[in-house]
Design goal:
With 173 residues, the chain is of the alpha/beta class. Helix content is 37%, strand content 17%. The chain contains six helices and six strands; from the N terminus they run αβαββααβαββα. It has a six-stranded parallel sheet, sandwiched between helices. Helix 5 links the parallel strand 4 and strand 5. It is globular. The N and C termini lie far apart (44 Å).
């Protein structure tokens, strides 16, 4: 692990410890108008059909995409790209301007599809003011309002299918 990962991991752990004190509000898929998805650029081909499913349900979909390499592949122009070299500081934390830009993105539901260990995206997710956050359950931290445990198949399509199922069937009343 890089030394810089140590510092961002500590920041994420601190924010996660305060996550239970933030304002929560369950939101069903039917109630949601705006959905924000966070994912790694390597998963673009798998995530894009999932986001298209949400668009077909007449949801306004935004995305923040983590790009660790030098090149940014062709993708939807509306996606916010979080580029390691431009958008992270020396301690591997997203710069304040990037945090403010992400926080300004509307979201009734935030869906985190990043893989474990993507600390800059976890940092952004924990900073976002969205009141209902969904993602994969992490062993060491409780980050989400709805955490999905993945045991057998850890692929994104399987995870996204579970997220859609729960958001459509669970009622807030």
């Amino acid at each position: 692990m890089k030394l810089t990962h140590y510092f961002i991991k500590k920041k994420v752990q601190y924010l996660a410890s305060k996550a239970s004190t933030r304002k929560h509000r369950f939101c069903t898929l039917k109630e949601a108008n705006h959905i924000l998805a966070l994912f790694h650029v390597n998963d673009l081909a798998v995530v894009e059909p999932c986001l298209e499913t949400l668009r077909m349900l007449h949801k306004k979909v935004s995305a923040c995409v983590y790009v660790p390499g030098d090149t940014v592949p062709q993708m939807n122009d509306s996606y916010k790209v979080i580029h390691v070299k431009k958008d992270l500081d020396a301690w591997y934390s997203p710069k304040e301007t990037v945090v403010n830009e992400c926080n300004a993105m509307k979201a009734d539901i935030l869906i985190d599809l990043t893989r474990p260990g993507c600390y800059p995206m976890q940092y952004l997710m924990l900073q976002h003011p969205c009141q209902f956050k969904v993602g994969v359950k992490h062993e060491s931290m409780d980050l989400y309002d709805l955490a999905i445990s993945i045991t057998e198949r850890g692929d994104i399509n399987h995870l996204f299918g579970h997220i859609l199922f729960y958001l459509q069937t669970i009622r807030s009343k």
